[in-house]
Amino acid sequence: MNSRQRRGVILLVVSALCAIGAFAGVLAVIRDVNSKVGDEVAAYRLKQDVAPYKQLTADQFEKVDMPKRWLSDTAVTDLGDLRGKIAVTQLKKGSLLQTDMIVDRPKLEAGQQEIAIMIDAETGVAGKISPGSKVNIYATFKAENDKEKDQSKVIVENAGVIDVGKLTPIDQQGAAGDDSAARRQGEAVPITFALSAADAQRVAYAESFASHVRLALVAPGADATIAPDDKSYTLEGDK
User: 224-235, pLDDT tens digit by residue?
Assistant: First the structure.
C-alpha cells in the first residue's frame, strides 16, 4: 500500500468517525428534546369568540395536541368537563380553554321551576343581567276603567336568573285599549328565571296582560326586601 492509499484509508476512517459522532450528537439532541417536551396530551382551542355567560358546546372548540409539561394545571383536556358549564368572561378565538374560564350553570333549587319571558331590549337589560343575577320584576298595568289608575307593581322580588338568551327581533303591539296599539318591530331578550310556582304564575300573568315588564338588577349580595307600601305605585300617589 503506497502513501496515497494510506492517506485515503485514513481519510475514510476519519470521515466514518465524524459521521458516527454527528449521528451520536443528533441522537443526544433528540433525547434532550424528548426529555424536555415529554408526552403530548389533548387541549382545546376556541374556534370563535364566546360571549360571557353563554352555554359552552363542543363544536366551539378544536382539538390540539401539546406537550403535557407546557400546559397549565388549569387546562381543560376533556370536553366532558364542559357539560353544564357557561363562560364566566368573554372568551377569545384562539385561546386555550382553562377551567377558570368556566363556571357551573345556575341550577334549580327544590320547589323551583324554570320560566322564560321576553324582555324588551329597550329596557336596557342587554349585557347587564347574566346567569346568577338577582332582579326585581316590575309590571305596569293600564287602568281598566275611569275609576282606576294606571299603576306599576313589583310582582317578584330577588328573582334568580339562570339563563340569558340572544337578542331576538319581535313584533310588538301596544296594550289592549291603547289607541296607539299599532304593531312595530322591536328586539327582545329571552330571560329564564328560577321561581316558585306562585311567582312563576305572577310572571306569566304579567307577560300576558301587563303593558310592560321590566327588570331591576339587585346589587350582588343584597337581598333587600321591598316594603309593602312600595310594591305598588300610581302617579297620583306622588301628589
Answer: 688 888 888 887
